[in-house]
């Protein structure tokens, strides 16, 4: 006789109500995903940023994120340290939206851009972001990627 059936039978004999059997297909409470809270304003600032060889450092970045349950949307802006006289657009900005499905979340960029924006929340006060814009040059964007293996750290802005 299965243990749950034996326990139920023993409780019935003792005058106690047997516990309800779990629903088939139901996810146990201990295994349900806890959604990270991404809502807020997340920032990065490096006033001493510069061009270092072929690398343009980030001067500032800001992600504004709203969240309702597992639905997330937001905006992201980043400025790169482009020296005066170089004909590169130092700004990147886009909108994104999607659903949370794991700790590392990937969102589609909103048109006219095509690409992805990935977020990993590393603590209550910090997260890292990376992005790839497939049609960056066509949209006048010179910095179409922050790679996943070198993500940008952002800190929650105090409110």
How is this structure best described in words?
By secondary structure, the protein is mainly β. The chain has one domain: Lipocalin (Beta Barrel), CATH 2.40.128. It contains 1 helix and 11 strands; from the N terminus they run αβββββββββββ. The chain has an 8-stranded antiparallel beta barrel. A two-stranded antiparallel sheet has the order 2-3. Strand 6 and strand 7 form a beta hairpin. The protein is globular. The N terminus is likely disordered.
Defining traits:
globular, mainly beta, 8-stranded antiparallel beta barrel, Lipocalin-like domain-containing protein, Lipocalin
Helix content: under 10%
Q: Would you tell me the overall average pLDDT?
A: 84
> Low-confidence segments, ≥5 residues, pLDDT <50?
1-13, 27-31
Can you summarize the main beta sheet? 8 strands, antiparallel, barrel
- Can you tell me the overall shape? globular
Domain count:
1
Number of DSSP E strands: 11
Give Rg in angstroms.
Answer: 24 Å
CATH class, named Mainly Beta
* DSSP summary: helix tally: 1
Organism: Paludibaculum fermentans
Protein name: Lipocalin-like domain-containing protein
List the helices and strands and how they pair.
Elements: H1 3-13, E1 40-45, E2 51-52, E3 55-56, E4 58-68, E5 71-80, E6 91-99, E7 104-109, E8 115-121, E9 126-133, E10 145-146, E11 152-156
Antiparallel strand pairs: 1-4, 1-11, 2-3, 4-5, 5-6, 6-7, 7-8, 8-9, 9-10, 9-11
Protein name: Lipocalin-like domain-containing protein
Organism: Paludibaculum fermentans
């Amino acid at each position: 006789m299965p243990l749950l059936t034996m326990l139920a039978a023993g409780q019935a004999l003792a005058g106690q109500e047997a516990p309800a059997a779990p629903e088939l297909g139901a996810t146990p409470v201990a295994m349900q995903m806890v959604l990270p809270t991404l809502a807020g304003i997340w920032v990065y600032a490096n006033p001493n940023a510069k061009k270092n060889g072929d690398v343009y450092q980030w001067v500032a970045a800001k992600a504004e994120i709203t969240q309702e349950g597992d639905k997330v949307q937001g905006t992201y802006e980043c400025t790169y340290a482009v020296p005066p006289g170089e004909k590169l657009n130092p700004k990147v900005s886009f909108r994104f939206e999607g659903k949370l499905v794991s700790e590392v979340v990937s969102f589609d960029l909103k048109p006219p851009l095509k690409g992805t924006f990935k977020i990993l929340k590393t603590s209550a006060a910090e997260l890292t972001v990376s992005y790839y814009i497939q049609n960056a040059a066509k949209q006048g964007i010179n910095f179409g990627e922050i790679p996943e293996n070198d993500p940008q750290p952002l800190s929650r802005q105090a409110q």
